[in-house]
Each structure stands twice: as structure tokens, then as C-alpha cells.
Write a structure and sequence with these properties.
single chain, Rossmann fold, Elongation Factor Tu (Ef-tu), domain 3, 3 domains, five-stranded parallel beta sheet
């Protein structure tokens, strides 16, 4: 097959490309330029897609003996990922930009371009398994990225490759070292790639400005003020700007965000538990269900897992949780899994609109 290997400049994509070469595929490497200010996209292990990463990707391609190109997708990334991220926070939601990047960039813009150029598949370093079109969790549970891939449709999965999903991360690093790849010891990137300093609140303030509002308790009593709902997310404990503790001396947490009035509601930890979720715009990885079904759901990239009963409704789903989950926020994705002896199967995902 002709395979386009997405080289991020990290160890996982490096070994994924190497395995595609070893499997006998005709491989071409591509690095995605996702910002016009790429010099500012990395701070140590924070961020990615910088000039440093592009240089590392080029060296990997040279060692593997494959052609290498850089594709400028900065306009698409700014519109489909960054602007979506900002708009979601302004609406009082908590988005996942990595999930949106997979949906809109890596397996839409990149895959479409790859297919138009005659490639058969796009290969990435995601920790997930793909077997006969069935998406499964990674063997390495601590690195599993199936949650952020649960936005992929069957036609996209038919042209995807995840060569490292059947291997533990420690083995991947050892394999990279054996191949002489300089990315073998490179730290994993973390946090949001386009906010390498980790200051999400500052990033949003620059783009949204100050939008003053009130912080209230569950009775409606005003406890303080804030500069914008974009500085908060459900489940947040620190940075609430309150000058006095709760009457019982226990910490307060963000329970809800109302963007129109600018109201942030806070309360006790116990009030964070939810037993029902409503979500919009489901995407099914292996075909839409014909009725209610039992499964396991996940609401965060790592954690937030519970048994559930899912009922499809027009343009959405209702999820009845078998056990409560905490800190579930609108804007997050809920992913659906079916337990299987060969490893959990990803059924699909939807975007959370409300909880109860």
C-alpha cells in the first residue's frame, strides 16, 4: 500500500512510520504545520508542531529513507480547532481540542488530501488498535488514545493505520533507540499544543476580553465576581477568586456555568456527581445502533468511565449511567465502548450538552 505517515516529531509517530516501512509499504512522511507562529509552539515538553518538531520529523524520515514533506494546514487548524476551542469556552463548555484535531484535521483535511494524491492510508502514532475496521483500545491502557479517535467514521477508519497500539510505550521507546531515531528519548508532549505555556485562562482572555459576571452558591447568594466564564470549567476547585470559605469549611467546586448571564455556580464536591447525560451529534465508528444498548462510557481522555444504557434520540443520545460520574461538563465528548475478550471496541461518541 501507499501510506502517508504523519510525523509529529515525537517517538510514537516515528516508530509508527518505521513499522509501516518494515511491513513493506511505500511510505511518505509528512509533518503538519498547524500555526504561522511555529517558533512559539513548544516550551519543553509542552506543545507540539513547532519548528523543532519539524526538524526532528525530517531527521526520522532521513533515517528511514523515506520522502518527507511539510504541509501547511494552519488556516484549517485555526478555524476548525482553535476557533472552535475559543467559541466553546465562551459558550460555557469544556472542549477537547485533540479530539477536534483528529476529526477535522488529521482524518478529514489530511486524509482527504492523501486519498486525492493516491495514498491508501494515513498512518499515525496514536495508541489504539484497528482490526478489520474495528477500533479498539490500546494494549497500553495508560497511553490509550481511543477516546480521542472515537470521532472517526467507518470510511475514515478504512484508510487509517495505528501501528503502535499493540505495544507498551516502554517497548516503543526501546525500538526507536534500536533504530537510531533521535526521538527515542524525547519527552511526550502534554497539555494543549497551541497553548505551550499552559495558561489557558490567559489565552482565552486575549481572545475574548473581560466579560464580568457573578460567582454564586446553589442558593443564589453572590459570593464574588469574575472576569469571564471562559476562566472556569465544571469540577474546577482552584482559581475561583472567593474571599471566604464555605460555612462548613470545605472546598467549593464549579457546578455549572451560564454564559448568557455570566453566572458561575459553585458548591460542594458531592454536588458534582451526575447520573444522566444528554449528548448531540453522535458519530458511530461501525454503524448506527437500531435501538437502546448497554455499554461502557468514557467522558475524559483518561478516566471518567462507567457502565451505562444509551438510548438514541433525534440528533443525539440519552445516557443513563450505571454509577455516578463526577465533573462531567457540556462540550466534553462521551465515548461508547463494548466490552470484548479481544479488547474493548469503540462504538462511537457524541458531544455532551447537559447532565442530570
Amino acid at each position: 500500500m501507499r501510506v502517508l505517515a504523519a510525523l509529529s516529531g515525537g517517538v510514537d509517530s516515528s516508530v509508527a512510520a518505521a513499522r509501516a516501512v518494515a511491513a513493506g509499504h511505500e511510505v511518505v512522511g509528512v509533518h503538519l504545520a498547524l500555526s504561522r507562529t511555529r517558533d512559539a509552539l513548544r516550551s519543553g515538553s509542552r506543545g507540539c508542531c513547532s519548528r523543532e518538531d519539524a526538524a526532528d520529523a525530517a531527521r526520522v524520515a532521513d533515517v528511514l529513507g523515506i520522502p518527507y514533506y511539510v504541509w501547511d494546514l494552519s488556516e484549517e487548524f485555526a478555524e476548525d480547532v482553535v476557533a472552535d476551542f475559543v467559541a466553546s469556552y465562551a459558550a460555557g463548555e469544556t472542549p477537547n481540542p485533540c479530539l477536534r484535531c483528529n476529526e477535522k484535521i488529521k482524518f478529514a483535511a489530511v486524509l482527504d488530501k492523501a486519498l486525492a494524491l493516491g495514498f491508501d492510508a494515513v498512518c499515525t502514532g496514536h495508541y489504539a488498535r484497528l482490526e478489520s475496521g474495528v477500533l479498539r483500545r490500546s494494549v497500553d491502557q495508560g497511553k490509550d488514545q481511543s477516546y480521542v479517535l472515537a470521532v472517526l467514521r467507518p470510511d475514515q477508519l478504512a484508510h487509517a493505520m495505528f501501528p503502535v497500539g499493540d505495544t507498551e510505550k516502554s517497548v516503543i521507546r526501546a525500538e526507536a533507540a534500536e533504530l537510531g531515531l533521535r526521538t527515542a528519548a524525547k519527552p511526550d508532549s502534554h497539555d494543549i499544543c497551541f497553548i505551550p505555556d499552559g495558561d489557558t485562562r490567559g489565552f482565552l482572555r486575549e481572545r475574548l476580553g473581560d466579560r464580568p459576571g457573578s460567582v454564586v452558591d446553589t442558593s443564589g447568594e453572590v459570593l464574588g465576581t469574575h472576569d469571564g466564564v471562559h476562566g472556569f470549567t465544571v469540577g474546577q476547585r482552584k482559581g475561583l477568586g472567593l474571599d471566604r470559605p464555605a460555612a462548613d469549611g470545605r472546598p467549593r467546586y464549579v457546578l455549572g456555568i451560564e454564559p448568557v448571564s455570566g453566572t458561575v455556580t459553585v458548591g460542594p464536591d458531592s454536588a458534582l456527581a451526575v447520573s444522566a447525560i444528554t449528548a448531540r451529534s453522535p458519530i458511530w465508528c461501525s454503524g448506527a445502533p437500531d435501538g437502546p444498548f448497554a455499554c461502557t462510557v468514557q467522558v475524559r481522555a483518561h478516566g471518567g468511565i462507567a457502565p451505562a444504557e444509551v438510548t438514541p434520540v433525534p440528533d443525539g443520545v440519552r445516557v443513563a449511567l450505571g454509577e455516578p460520574l463526577r465533573g462531567v461538563a457540556p462540550g466534553q465528548a462521551v465515548a461508547f465502548y463494548r466490552e470484548d475478550p479481544a479488547g474493548d471496541v469503540v462504538l462511537g461518541s457524541a458531544t455532551i450538552t447537559s447532565t442530570g
